[in-house]
Amino acid sequence: MLSGRGFNQVYNVSGGINAWEGKTAVGPQALGMELFDGTESPQDFLKVAYSLEQGLHRFYLDMADKARTPAVQALFEKLAAIEIKHQDVVFDTYERMDDAVVSREQFDAMVEKSALEGGLTTDQYLELFDPDLTVEKEVISLAMSIEAQALDLYQRVGARMKNTDSAAIVHGIADEEKQHLERLGKLMDTL
Amino acid sequence: MKWMQFFTPVESKDYRETQEMISDHSPEDITILDVRQPSEYQESHIPGAVLIPLPQLSDRMSELDPDKPTLVY
User: Which of A49, A147, A182, B63 suits A173 as a labelling partner, its CA being 20 to 30 A distant?
Assistant: First the structure.
């Protein structure tokens, strides 16, 4: 998030506080890739946003399958359900602005065609962060890191969008992600 | 679904490198940023770390100096 806003010397402390306390350490640095060039139409942006939300939904379901305790499994299922709501928002926005009548199934199919390539699989992602899936705090922390990346992505894209309609949509979705992140933070505080 | 697209490029520092960076800078010349929740910060944190929980970070970036090296955890 910081590296996209003029902070040129940002370093991730590998393993976070756990590494600092000598409990564990993880290594590889994450690389980045841009999805948007700022010239996309609102419709194009919404398709990519939808695929991101779809990906988050699948990711949480994958995680629910891998969870080792019923509580953590339930948590992932809840997070997955929230992503469906995000997809609903994206689709509603698309429907409102696009003249063509498109069913949800048709929209799903359109988005599938623009499936993202490159990057990490769910298993590689887990290997990178090595979360303890029996610990709810670690699960939420992982979810927050993903949501923060999504928020950052939307905010950076919104700032670069030349089309004002697109920018307004991107900012709206970014606000949704921020609220989602805040909810996860509050959930973390209850544990 | 692939995930690399979510990551902005950030270099990682391990424990030893983090220690070196902190000892090589005066406290006012480096930012150690803790983005966890306040309760986690209270449990333990790297000495000198500034707490800005992740959900607040996008609104509070102006509190940080972009020209200083920033260690984030």
Answer: B63
